[in-house]
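Changelog entry

Holo records now carry the ligand SMILES as an explicit input line rather than a separate metadata file. Below, a converted record for guanosine-5'-diphosphate, shown in the new format.
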Amino acid sequence: MKKKIKVALAGNPNSGKTTIFNNLTGSRQHVGNWPGVTVEKKEGTFAYEGLNIKVVDLPGIYSLASHSLDEKIARDFLLEEKPDVVVAIIDSSNLERNLYLAVQLLELGVNLVLDLNMIDIIENKGMRIDIEELSRVMDVPVIKTAANKGKGIDNLKSAVKDISVREEKNTFEIDYGNDLENEIRNLSRFLGEKKILSRYSLRWLVLKLLEQDENILAKIKGLPEEKEVEEKVFESIAKLEKHFGYDVETAIVERRYAFLRGLVKECCHKIMGIREREEITDRIDQIVTNKFLGIPIFLGLMWFTFQLVFTFGAPLADLIDSFFGWLGGIVSLGMNVLAAPAWISSLLVDGIIGGVGSVLIFLPNILLLFLMISILEGSGYMARAAFIMDRVMHAMGLHGKSFIPMMLGFGCNIPGIMAARTLESEKDRILTILVNPLMSCSARLPIYTLFAGAFFAEHQGLVVFSLYFMGIVLAIVVARIFKSIFFKKEVAPLIMELPPYRLPQVKSVLIHMWEKGSLFLKKAGTIIFVGVMFVWLLASLPPGVEYAAKESLIGKLGSLLAPLFSLAGFGTWQAAVSLLFGIVAKEIVVGTLGTLYGVEEVGLKSVIMQHFTPLSAYAFMAMSLIYVPCIAAIATIKKETNWKWTVLAVGYSLILGWVVAVLIYQIGILFI
Amino acid sequence: MKALNKTLTGEKVEIVEIRGGRGLVTKLLNMGFYPGVIVEVISNCGYGPLIIAKDGMRLGLGFGMAQKIFVK
Ligand SMILES: Nc1nc2c(ncn2[C@@H]2O[C@H](COP(=O)(O)OP(=O)(O)O)[C@@H](O)[C@H]2O)c(=O)[nH]1
Ligand SMILES: [Mg+2]
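Structure line, unchanged by the conversion:
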């Protein structure tokens, strides 16, 4: 039996925790250059010299005071789950602030390893950190890594192993000065005797009480000694504040930083020489966040992404399209020659090739979309986008940081909804989640491409862009309305670190793109496949019915629903069922149409041209954008909020989708 | 003493006071922005968000936050 230990990776946002995690465990968690990439704890394992090590990657935190949901996850893990070892991942180019967290972790009494990551950056600048000195002062093992190049990982492993058997207690303590230390002693004695919250280190607990940490105060609430503790603490605080002339929390923070300033000076040679990188970053920022240029540059980038995905992706998609058309022809010919039963031929040609194939066509577009998203994420621009849009977002009742979930929503709404965890205010978070499904995710892309390609071949780019834009505008309107109904409170102001720009790493960009691509393929092979098979089956039953005729089961089902949509111009039973099954996954909208109409030779495009007009096609696309998030997104909303908000999200989108589609059609008809 | 949003790009100022909700103040304090710290204003266009720097760190602040940080 191997000995098992649990190791947590803790550190500031963007210090390289996930990169280290991937290096240790060989997994491929998402790495990006903006704060808030990791919003949940991820576990992995590896074996090292007889140890079975479980590693937990945590969301980034600046201190143990948590403000948002993702920070709370990290904090709770460190506090309550008591990992055997905590590795503090330090961004060496920002030592002081990164060590600040490490100091708090030591006060908490964890078994700590200090990992000076990003050591490559400072060594390239000719700087050196005296790790022996650092290790001596803080009484912890210190190692260096350059995680993005996989350097130093072995040292980290062995340091973890060594510390996991360390017996003696860490002796490091910051001297907070006589006055504070006196009160710390007093309170420690008092709390120690009463054995209050004794699962935490005493000194840490006292400091948190003096800092009036909301989480710890909440834990004191309800204890029998609540009143007594509060009185004692207030007494100390009052005494200290009288003495300092300002609040104790500031005093404590200040003392920690003062200590670290000294320590960093001692351990670093030439610490201020790091201007260069920031100079580049600052220069880019002066342009990119400029009050006149900021938004145009952002829109330009979006337009470029868009053109790449659609214009460049279209010929590739067409290629796959013709391949499936050809394949359908061959298979049906082959089946004829072999005299196979008609239903087998139909299963292969209509169901698999027509249904799943018509979705798979869009793989190139999806790969290109994620290519652009990962470049944006890796460069550091993501945080700037949120920054630039802060004012705009405020005007619509959202928070600047809500912009990142919305951008991610263009890839997939699920990570978008999860990313809302980084918002400090619960109300901002819920609002961000509610409107996220209005961002056109990559699953809507097949619908847009198919219809826009068929009906608006000349202006395909413009038409698709208008749909993305419509989603954004609707999100603004919906957010404003919900804000005024449910959350009258003001939006919390933005505080966000802007990481230095980095060249996105080719490898990690490609990996990310591929991961998303293969996810799409997997989806095509599983949920889309099953959905489409189901459609095919319903279209072939009852036995003897003509395939996909109005009298088939699915035809009857569709005919039931179709009248609902006649006002919107697409009252055919095929359109109705495709929307119905599209709730499972939006790609199935196209899959269903492909199955029902068949793709042989002529291709799906030309078939749908007989069943829609340009106007009804546009209304249909708008409907597919808005009506109901897919099942997976609904489940995520439920997980991140509660039933009430989930029902609201589903309800409002259904109604809104229908209203918008009808309006488009009815108003359009007046002009055409 | 003036609010941070009244500063000019390139100015170096000392933080005097941070007002606002407790959570946000705590967050700024722990990020290393407390009274006495010198920061440089990297970009401030007068309205809208601004960027300040402390050592190697760049912090984006919304307008609402910048109004509540007082400097000299
Ligand atoms: N130069 C350099 N970059 C790194 C290193 N480790 C991570 N990075 C980059 O830093 C950014 C943040 O990494 P990530 O692992 O997502 O950080 P996390 O937020 O702490 O999980 C990414 O762009 C990484 O490529 C390193 O040792 N050296
Ligand atoms: Mg991470």
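Spot-checked after migration. The two ends of chain A are 77 Å apart (CA to CA). Chain A has a mean pLDDT of 87.
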